Amino acid sequence: MNWKVQTVLAGVMAALGLYVLFNPVTVTGLVFGVVPWLLLGAGAIYLLGVIFRKRRRPITMILPGLVGVFLVYAGLSMKLGDPRTVGPVDVSFILSLLLVGGGIAKLASIAEVRKSRYFPAFLGSGVLSIVMGLVVLFNWAAVSDGFLGVVLGLELIADAAFLGAFAFRDKDNEEHKEALGLTPGG
């Protein structure tokens, strides 16, 4: 993807993050209203993909089918039951697992950019995601809607920094410099 497009997307993500950060309760309420429908739609897409697949090998149908069933279950559970739970599991607990998992994925993906001048942005984004996930995880019973909104806003800003760092890395052509054995930051 072009670095300019990545930069614009990072800017949009950062703007959304700031909006969520300054309107945490309103946005959290909207999220709880929209998420069940998104889960139902995604689950339906997975299941339709399994049904209309041309090659019907069990190995290529089991995992997408299970994901589709879980997504439909989660959407129905939130829509018909308590919108703050997916079955017996609280949404803030799921959010904390997603934040920690996303932070770990960010940190796992930055090994190749260790020499980049943007490495602190990559590292900071991953660490921030893990820290926010752990805060929500260890305090998940007492987490309020406003706090979840603040965490969501901060995560969007952290993701924007991560995407922006990759955009500027592409702009500076650091990957090509590394392949030539040159120092990317210099």
Automatic annotation (TrEMBL):
The chain crosses the membrane at residues 7-25, 31-52, 59-76, 91-111, 118-141, 147-168. Pfam families: DUF308. The keyword ATP-binding does not apply. Keywords: Membrane, Transmembrane, Transmembrane helix. This is DUF308 domain-containing protein. It comes from Croceibacterium selenioxidans. The lineage of its organism: Bacteria, Pseudomonadati, Pseudomonadota, Alphaproteobacteria, Sphingomonadales.
